[in-house]
Specification:
The complex is a heterotetramer, with two copies of chain A (338 residues) and two copies of chain B (338 residues). By secondary structure, chain A is of the alpha/beta class. Chain A is built from twelve helices and eight strands. Chain A has a six-stranded parallel sheet with strand order 1-7-8-4-3-2, sandwiched between helices. A two-stranded antiparallel ribbon of chain A has the order 5-6. In chain A, strand 7, helix 8 and strand 8 form a beta-alpha-beta unit. Chain B is of the alpha/beta class. Chain B has twelve helices and 14 strands. In chain B, strand 13, helix 10 and strand 14 form a beta-alpha-beta unit. A seven-stranded mixed sheet of chain B has the order 3-2-4-5-7-6-12, with helices on both faces. Chain B has two domains: 193 residues, Thiamin diphosphate (ThDP)-binding fold, Pyr/PP domains (Rossmann fold, 3-Layer(aba) Sandwich), CATH 3.40.50; 129 residues, Rossmann fold, CATH 3.40.50.920. In chain B, 70% of the residues are buried. The longest helix of chain B is centred in the first third of the chain and has 15 residues. Helix content of chain B is 35%, strand content 19%. Classes of the chains: A alpha/beta (338), B alpha/beta (338). At the B-D interface, helix 4, helix 6 and helix 10 of B face helix 4, helix 6 and helix 10 of D. The complex binds thiamine diphosphate (2 copies) and magnesium ion (MG) (2 copies). One thiamine diphosphate sits at the interface of chains C and B.
């Protein structure tokens, strides 16, 4: 049942119908993620950011192409340890995100969660997750809630190639199918789970090949191509909303940084990242596509770049200046009532 | 409130029914809780493995969901659904099966609120059978509530009678925090006076089951009735024990225990869980820390030995704390002198 | 990659090459399982057998057809809660098995395990298992040990249709493939997991359809046909022994008794069991096949029946007469040394 | 034995190396312990996530196995392999991940011997990181050894220094029972004197780290060094504490603690685990039960508050028990009077 995009036919949402404003939004999202991650990379290197940090640079087209179809109210996503991109694409505010990574009271989670646990339920973002495979079962629940409420909402679980081998993920695929849930599973295959290659850890040729065993469509897209992700995701989400049940999308690409900040990456081929950055990059490709086709101008895009750069600069400055949590914060927020 | 005699099983069923009637966001899920899906025979054939949810499927269409055997999947789904406005009651058939789904309880449900800076509410109830006595052997007889009591973010409820189980279950479902609800598998046929109307029993308020002057006996779950047997046997020796049922282990009503110990000066804690790091050690340590000056004798713990639960009836009967074990402990502390 | 038997081609072991003695062995095994289970069913009804008991009657061709290819020394099987058949087929002695079910010191596990935990490591039988999905990961380990030792041994995991949806099972399939283990996964699809139909709980048409997603062959056989199971299993086990990696076999049939003893089975279609017993039964079919082809005579088979009947009778009599474990048995066998 | 200063990390690596040299049945498995499989870059790039197993892959071909992200799968495989003659050392990266594989530890490894009537031997060692201090937040900072100490059938080891970690790991690997081995993630760079030669430290023999007369302080794992700091601070006040490191929590050497308390009459237990049902309560309760008459003051427990581990450094530092907390507790018990 695994399909490549071309076989999807006329049902697919039409990326060429995106308006100028929508295209600018898409670009702003991808650029924001990239700028956010590049800056966190720098700040981490100076020792100012505590804890474990996993960067999403290179994978922007996935979060952006999927979340472009989602509402903040009725649609929920569950993310991974590599969650900044999903947060930004789902509309979580960037300044509190940055403050959270620095462990400040102004953070999305008041400094209690950090990079691995940024969440914003009010935006339908059910959290980054420190547990590989933690998210997919949760999404069966948010999809079930949407189905029972009948609000047309969809649940989307992002997970990595490594996570695709976790039992929790596979259970969620089966459960979503058995319960016929409005759920969408996005396998972000960036080639590695930590230092282990996905070609080794996934016993099928493609993660999407597992979809058939769970009675759902499985589609593979080029994750460097925003429009490909956008169309494939749109199709799956539309189907889910209309009661057509869950699907699995495998998005293939490469991550630009190490598994986590500090990773020397000697397990990778020498030119892997350089090649991707130079020849495949999703932002370059998007930019080239929309300018060559005359849908957007370089000036418009440059203006977005400048706005994003300024926002990130402010986010970092404000995050650094913000207060750290104090003794009384230690004991709050455990229970609603105890 | 007018009462009538019903079983522990019926009391649970009644609490579920009444909560589902008063709040349409309450749903139920678990293996065969809706009777077993997809077969050629009767609907609602089972009501969970021991018939507790029988009849609910017909009364609440679409809100009583069978699941495949996929504890990580559906416990996770219950948790996810709880973050999106439902109040799921998930049946984890035997608490022993927590081994295959602990992450969704320990790292997801329990921690969301804190990790997310107080911005999540996860009103999920997980009902599970615990305890020995049915010759169910090592993998189906554990108590395990100490594991959950250890984990911040969870509430742990262990009802000791039909009256208690109804009121505490209603409270669990209405409660805004994740609750692990322990039903003793050997108590489903125990009967007692239970009001027809809906009522709740608040968390963190211990019940003084029997007043007495010489020794405070704290007993958990089914051990409450065993302590009552012991109380009767002790009447002959002129020793009067005060029996306290904590009802909820997290939160724990230490004050009621301390007040009693202030009066009796002696404490015995009876716990069906394995002896290391269990509730008996926990309560003993807390009482000693807070009320050492009140104690006239060592605190004694009545728990099974540090071995798995054996199958053979001859062994299981020795394994489970008995009224005689309690009598012996009470005598040890009353007869104790330096 | 799912195949039906006919497509396996000439590699398959040839059931027609089984000698007279081998055929009699096969028959003895199937008949022993049936007689054992029928008798346990009766004894349970009289209340003499404690705990939970799950019977394998109807499924004899699977355990027998698979284990016919296995050695006791180098090959290990992991079983399920429905384990008596696997035990007998792997050569565990019947008298200690029966004694174990009665909870006696003469039992395979000295009365500490019971029906759900019969094991005999000396026969390569790693235990029935009370946890659905508990066995498959273990078998990755026994297969790994065989691979590392280079003794040509194979690990075989039996699991049910319900267990096929458990994450642990699916993880084991992937791991066996990634590690290229001499492992064999036997999905015994008897139509139900407790009261839930496998057509409902398994989101694919066949469990074997999942094999492709784990890069291994998946084959379906008629589980009432000993010879079909024998040939398919032989092929997979041969491949595993020769370093060809793991496979998945789906064996389809029906169980004759309830999920556990006491189950009223109202979820089943009215004639399901009667039809299978009358028209599909593996023992009848085997008997008819070998007598019609002249490979065995009715007299030979009747003699086996009589011997088996006597063995079971003795097993029950001796089990009933055997002593129950006593106080000092409670504390032994927890650790090798503590 | 001649010693030299090496790190906790190096001491672990050395123990693994020496045990693998002396016994060919010792194998290692875990995520990226062999460096990361299948990539285009260097072999042995990682040595587990924090470099502990680095170099072993090259030294022991075929005996150091990377795994996919499949904790139920490979922990189960380690357990299964242990029943078939290997001595697997499985790395569970963070003990927090026990949530996705507890069953194989709790219901399989821990219970085989008892359930099977003493006829199984399961010499598996599970190494895992625990503890706070690295700003790793709620899902990567737990101590959790109380959960495993609660479970009969397991041994629980928490080494407190480079010397201890080497000798206790060697013993764990040679031990015939399942061992959960806790390495504090903030200690890998701590250095200390360690013999080059192989040696073992027996289980169940506590270490009196420092002698003293006024208060017995039992401290676990990294808390031993924090207690040593406290001891120095207390010297000024003229209070001398005796510090005991239990080394193994199961089995627990209660006798050494009781002897010390007999002398000091006062006890403080320092435990980095969450406060309910933890080791501090366990040891307190056992000492009170056995030696009430020796106590001159309440037993005090120094543990974190009942909240998840916070991310922000300002909070985490408050969360983890400090030398000052120990000093305060010691003063409370020395100054205590009815
Ligand atoms: C249950 C669990 N196992 C292991 C880890 C450690 N870990 C964190 S991220 C990671 C790799 C995940 O790989 P993948 O799913 O491909 O996501 P990616 O990092 O490539 O985005 C691992 C092994 C974890 N956090 N949780
Ligand atoms: C983890 C776990 N979940 C649930 C159960 C309860 N249970 C015991 S047997 C069973 C059904 C298993 O179905 P299947 O795998 O098809 O095996 P069958 O009983 O049909 O042989 C269930 C749900 C269990 N023992 N363990
Ligand atoms: Mg990846
Ligand atoms: Mg079945």
């Amino acid at each position: 049942m695994t399909q490549t995009l071309s076989t999807l036919g006329s049902d697919a949402p039409d990326a060429s119908a995106l308006s100028e404003a929508q295209l600018l939004d898409v670009y702003r999202t991808m650029r924001s993620i990239r700028a956010f991650e590049d800056r966190v990379h720098e700040e981490f290197a100076t020792g100012e950011i505590p804890g474990f940090v996993h960067l999403y640079a290179g994978e922007e087209a996935s979060a952006t192409g999927v979340c472009a179809h989602l509402d903040q109210d009725r649609d929920t996503i569950a993310s991974t340890h590599r969650g900044h991109g999903h947060c930004i694409a789902k509309g979580v505010d960037i300044k509190p995100m940055m403050a959270e990574i620095f462990g400040k009271t102004t953070g999305s989670c008041r400094g209690k969660g950090g990079s691995m646990h940024i969440a914003d339920l009010s935006k339908g973002m059910l959290g980054a997750n420190g547990i590989v495979g933690g998210g997919p079962p949760l999404i069966c629940g948010t999809a079930l809630a949407a189905k029972i409420k009948g609000d047309g909402g969809v649940g989307v679980a992002f997970f990595g190639d490594g996570a695709s081998n976790q039992g929790t993920t596979m259970e969620a695929l089966n459960l979503a199918s058995v319960w016929d849930l409005p759920a969408f599973f996005v396998a972000e295959n960036n080639g590695y789970g930590e230092a282990a290659a996905s070609t080794w850890s996934v016993s099928a040729d493609n993660i999407a090949d597992r979809a058939a065993g769970f009675g759902m469509p499985g589609v593979i897209v080029d994750g460097f191509d925003f429009f490909a992700v956008y169309e494939a995701a749109g199709e799956a989400i539309r189907r889910a909303r209309e009661g057509g049940g869950p699907s699995l999308l495998e998005v293939k690409f490469t991550r630009y940084y190490g598994h986590f900040e500090g990773d020397q990456q000697t397990y990778r081929g020498k030119d892997e990242v350089r090649n991707a950055r130079e020849n495949l990059d999703c932002i370059k490709r998007f930019r080239q596509g929309v300018t060559e086709s005359g849908r957007l101008t370089d000036a418009q895009l440059d203006e977005v770049d400048a706005q994003v750069a300024q926002l990130i600069e402010e986010a970092v400055t404000e995050a650094k200046a913000a207060p750290v949590p104090g003794p009384k914060d230690l004991l709050t927020d455990v229970y609603v009532k105890y | 409130m007018a009462t009538r005699k019903i079983s522990y099983r019926e009391a649970i069923n009644e609490a579920l029914t009444q909560e589902m009637e008063r709040d349409s966001s309450v749903i139920i899920m678990g293996e065969d809780v809706a009777g077993g899906a997809g077969g050629q025979g009767e609907d609602d054939a089972w009501g969970g493995v021991l018939g507790v949810t029988k009849g609910l499927y017909g009364k609440f269409p679409g809100r009583v969901l069978d699941t495949p055997i996929t504890e990580s999947g559906y416990i996770g789904a219950a948790v996810g659904a709880a973050t999106r406005g439902l109040r799921p009651v998930a049946e984890l058939m035997f608490i022993d099966f927590a081994g295959v789904c602990l992450d969704q309880i320990m790292n997801q449900a329990a921690k969301f609120r804190y990790m997310f800076g107080g911005k999540a509410v996860t009103p999920v109830t997980i009902r599970a059978m615990y305890g020995g006595g049915l010759r169910a052997a090592a993998q189906h007889s554990q108590a395990l509530y100490p594991l959950f009591t250890h984990l911040p973010g969870l509430k742990v409820v262990v009802p000791s009678s039909p009256y208690e189980v109804k009121g505490l279950l209603a409270q669990s479902i209405r409660d805004d925090d994740p609750v692990i609800f322990f039903e003793h598998k050997a108590m489903y046929d125990v009967t007692g006076e239970v009001p027809q109307e809906s009522y709740t029993i608040p968390f963190g308020e211990a019940n003084v089951v029997r007043e007495g002057d010489d020794v405070t006996v704290v007993a958990i779950g089914r051990m409450v009735s065993v302590a009552e047997e012991a109380a009767k046997e002790l009447e002959g020796s002129g020793i009067s024990i005060e029996i306290i049922d904590p009802r909820t282990l997290s939160p724990l009503d230490l004050d009621t225990i301390l007040e009693s110990v202030e009066n009796t000066g002696r404490l015995v804690v009876v716990d069906e869980a394995s002896p290391r790091c269990n509730i008996a050690t926990d309560i003993s340590a807390q009482v000693v820390s807070e009320a050492f000056g009140d104690l006239k004798a060592p605190v004694k713990m009545v728990s099974p030995p540090h071995v798995p639960v054996p199958f053979a009836g001859s062994l299981e009967d020795l394994y489970i704390p008995s009224a005689q074990d309690i009598v012996n402990a009470v005598k040890t502390v009353t007869e104790w002198s330096k």
